[in-house]
Amino acid sequence: MKKICFYFQIHQPYRLKRYRFFNIGRDHYYYDDFSNEDILQQIASRSYVPANKMLLDLINATNGEFRFAISVSGVALDQMEIHAPEVIDGLKKLSRTGAVEFLAETYSHSLSSLVDPIEFQKQVKRQAEKIKLLFDQEPKVLRNTELIYSDDIADLAYSMGYTKMISEGAKSILSWRSPNFVYKSENQPNLKLLLRNTQFSDDISLRFSDYTWKEYPLTADKYMSWIAATSPEEEVFNLFMNYETLGNLQPSHSGIFEFVKALPKFAKDKGIGFATPSEIMDLHKPVGTISVPSPISWADEERDLSRWLGNTLQRSAFNTLYEVSERVRMTNDRRLKQDWSYLQTSDHFYYMSTKHFYDGSNHSLFSPYQSPYDAFNNYMNVLSDFIERVKAQYPDTVDNEELNSLLTTIHNQELEIKKLQSELNKVLSDNEAMLVKKKSKPKISNVKEKK
């Protein structure tokens, strides 16, 4: 039986305010609170809230047969808790149905997997803990930021205990093969992989409302007919897309909600079901191995990292940021750690992209900056102030190894002091108890009874 595996990404970055060179050293707050709140509430109203309701209704109407997966970045959840708690309430309702699987990803929606394995592992663990706290699920499937994947990342994921991942069905790794099967990592054979069906996913997420497309308008009946007409051996159809496809990237007047509502009916008529990533990978055995020496993603035609690290501006900012990663991990300053988390978000590097900038590409619509160079200058001003704050705690004159040793010594001394303090408190407590016992003991008279 053919199965459709829907996966939706939810992410919103903390956009930076206009931060000028003269702010460095004076202003340590970096975020555009007005824009972040305004944009999130608009998207929540147009997309997240109605999509949550529609999908919940679909699950209930089909008695749980309509199933899918969601991944939410930690930075998006942080903002929703403040500005759009109704979105989280809707996601909780979806989770309680048992038909929605929540996936693990990096908390900051970062590119840390490319250069900083320790940071990557910390972020994935933190995001999984947040998912458990809010939605009472322990993620079993990992999806990296923007579906970025490579053999090295497979090693990282498996070392963390993950045996299931999802990524992009890029032609560069599939060649003649179809994405409509379960695969496994070549260097980690116990790590199963689901690969995005680019064509079927983009038919919905990119082309649905494009009236110049030869298949416009796309109906649920037509769409399910395409899937039903594929080879009988192809049983897994991975449709991965941004959650904003529902109501924002594809506006409600395009008929996107009606299209999705109709999918279960026409799927059932053609003997097609729905399943979550875990269910697919538990049910199907891998048909082959996938080797990915260089990282892939789900961005652009190239399916590579060029959208985030394709020019010297992006690489310079990226390298400068991660040069201080070890020192940030040493600090106990909560504000510094929070800024470190938010500054890692991949969107900051995306805004610096010069790909298609001059051809009027839709990519520029997502940027709050007038140009990639404006994005770079603003980010580097913020980063300069952030690095100054890090250096104020840990000067450059002390190298990382020496500093780490010193901090370890201090930490051990603190533990020893706590231990001695605990022992002292116990002695004082015992002495106090003995005094109380002595005072409460009845006195014996020394006067002899007269005869």
Low-confidence stretches: 447-451
The CATH first-level class of the largest domain comes to Alpha Beta
Overall form: globular
What structural category characterises the helix and strand content? alpha/beta
Instruction: Please state the second-level CATH architecture of the largest domain.
Output: Alpha-Beta Barrel
Report the biggest beta sheet as strand number plus sense, adding barrel if it closes.
5 strands, parallel
- How many helices? The count is 17
User: Can you give the mean pLDDT?
Assistant: 92
Number of strands: 11
**How many structural domains does the protein architecture include?**
2
H/E element sequence:
EHEHHEHHEHEEHHEEEHEHEHHHHHHH
Beta-strand proportion: 5-15%
Helical fraction equals 40-55%
CA gyration radius, whole angstroms: 28 Å
CATH topology of the largest domain: 7-stranded beta/alpha barrel
The span between the termini is: 109 Å
What can you see in these coordinates?
Helices cover 48% and strands 10% of the residues. The protein has 451 residues and is of the alpha/beta class. The strands form three sheets. Strands 1, 2, 3, 7 and 10 form a five-stranded parallel sheet that branches. Strands 4-6-5-11 form a four-stranded mixed sheet. Strands 8-9 form a two-stranded parallel ribbon. Strand 5 and strand 6 form a beta hairpin. Helix 2 (74-83) packs across helix 3 (85-96). 40% of the residues are buried. Mean pLDDT is 92; it is low at 447-451.
